[in-house]
Design goal:
The relative contact order is 0.14. By secondary structure, the protein is α/β, with parallel strands linked by helices.
């Protein structure tokens, strides 16, 4: 039975989804990775050979995360500055994480690369995947 409270909750959820959509549309750092690219990457790196994955820059609709779910892979998905305190620069990778893969915000790619290599040096990650253009950054 629908009640006024249910209707209100539904309306609030719709408003929140619309606000998130508008925010994401305006966010120049968020460019979704197409499914075929995720599938090609997963195939190239033999994604199923990794024990534990970390997706540190993933929105709720990330195809990295959604494809991992389809493959029943063990993973942790966070976003660089989400509302539950998963700031990439202070969050530790999951225990036994052996792959960090994601599509990071472009405006902070150099800081993200530095933090990523720091995690490797600390033996908290073994493999990191970046785009060639990120690694070729002159900034």
């Amino acid at each position: 039975m629908k009640t006024i409270a249910n209707e209100y909750e539904t309306l609030e959820a719709i408003k929140k989804a619309m606000a998130m959509y508008e925010l994401k549309k305006a966010d120049k750092d968020h460019v979704a990775t197409p499914r075929y690219v995720v599938e090609d990457i997963y195939s190239l790196i033999d994604i199923e050979s990794f024990k534990s994955l970390w997706f540190p820059f993933n929105h709720y609709d990330s195809l990295f995360k959604l494809r991992a779910e389809e493959l029943n892979l063990k993973y942790k998905a966070t976003h660089i500055f989400d509302d539950v305190g998963n700031d990439f620069f202070t969050t530790e990778p999951p225990i036994d994480c052996d792959l960090m893969i994601s599509n990071p915000p472009f405006s902070q790619q150099n800081e993200i690369i530095e933090r990523s290599f720091q995690l490797i040096d600390e033996k908290k990650n073994k493999v990191i995947c970046f785009t060639i253009s990120a690694l070729d950054s002159r900034n």
